[in-house]
Structures are given as structure tokens and as C-alpha cells.
Design goal:
Layout: E1 5-7, E2 13-14, E3 33-36, H1 42-53, E4 57-62, H2 66-78, E5 83-87, H3 95-107, E6 112-115, H4 130-154, E7 160-164, H5 178-198, E8 204-210, H6 225-231, H7 240-250, E9 262-265
Helix pairs in contact: 1-2, 1-7, 3-4, 4-5
Length: 271
Amino acid sequence: MSSNAFSTPSGTLLGTAPATASAAVPAGLPHRAALVTGGSRGIGAAIALRLAQDGADVAITYVRGEEAARAVVAKIEGFGRRGVALRCDAADADAAADAVHRAADALGRLDILVNNAGIGVLGPITGLAGPDVDQTLAVNVRAVLLACRAAAERLADGGRIISVGSALSRYAGGPGSTLYGLSKSALTGLTKPLARELGPRGITVNVIQPGAVDTDLNPADGPLAEGQRAANALGRFGTTEEIASLVAYLVSTEAGFITGTELVADGGHAA
């Protein structure tokens, strides 16, 4: 019987038996449990797999694409770890916090929260509809705040919170990025005071600001790629694995003195 744990739209977990894969487990994150929001594809999937490879049990959330979520869970189990997929629409005011509690319950504990889920609505500010503004701020800002609030209740001392922002909060993007840049800039304002609030428990809180990263939403061979590539000092797109490696460092014991800060991975765009 598969050990995949999936939630129905109503939130009920299905199939939560412990993983039985025989793959060797690295010693990097033993006995630790993580939640990666938006973990069914792109940067989120790469982060989830890297944490599992390093020894953590990992829950991911997804909105659509259950098949992709199942594939990520199967790969997590291939590393000998427990994998859980939770359907969660972060635009729902109650869903983000609920996902944190469901992940902690399913895995038995929670040590790491990676706020990766996000949306991008691009276009001139005069053309932005009210629902676009509401949804972007709901997913990119409100859901992160509410997930962090829930995590403050469930995280073990010494835990980690990492949010995935955007290098657009560090430099001006092209026309049409105002709303997205605003929503991602808010994560810095959340990260710094929260780091001080949770610091006495040894919980670190940081935000990563990726630049151009090759994903299905922003492919390195897409119509907008050449301008982004030319703007980078390295002359290329980053990879999802490179962003995941930065997360892997921040959740490690070696990074225990890093908190309340932004880490930019933009290929030298702002150099």
C-alpha cells in the first residue's frame, strides 16, 4: 500500500502510513519535519526534494495539479522519508494556517516552514482589477503571515522559517511589476520583527530573494528570457536546485546564527 498522504478538498488526509522505502537516509536533517507551501512544482518542488534528500520528512501544499504533487511525494519517499501532500488554496483566509496544523499533525512535529507558494499578476497599475489585487495580497502576504502565526504555535524550539520572496523587491523590475513587487517586499517587513519575536526560542526567520530562475512559469527559453539573462552578471538563469541549496543551508545547524535577514540569489543582477 502506498504511504502517500493526500488531502481531499475538505481537508481529510488519505493514506498516512509511514514510508517504507529502503533508500539510505543522509544525516543532515534526521528526525526533522518540514512544510513547503507550493511544493508540487518549480522552486517549491526542488526545495521539498532537497530537504527530503537531507533527511527530513516533508509535507507540501498544492492548489491544482494533484498528479504533480503525487510525483513529488513519490520522490520524497524514494529518499526513505515520509511525504505528505495537502490541497490548500492560500487565497482562502483559513487555509494557510490550517495547512500548517495539518502538516504538523500528519508528520508528528514541525521543525521547518518554507513559505514558497505565490502568484504573480503583471500589468500596468491602471489595468489592475480589484480581484487581482486582492488575490495577490491574499496569497503572497496574508497567507504567509497566517502560516507564520500558526507555525509559531507548532514549531519546535530551534526551528526555521524561510520565505521565498523576489529580487524585484531589491531593484526596480520592468513595467507592470508594481503589484508583485509590493507583495514580495512585504515579506521583508514580516521577516525582521518576527525574527526578534521568535529568537528567544532559537527559531530563525529569513527571506530568500531569487532573481531569474528557470521554471515553467519563467522558462530560460521563454519570450522574456533574453532581457533577464543579459541583466545578470553571470549571463544565465539560476536553477531551482541552486535556490533549494540555499534553503538547505539556512535550515542547517551551521546557519543557526543567521536570522532576520535577506539573502539575494539573483545572478548578480543588482551587482
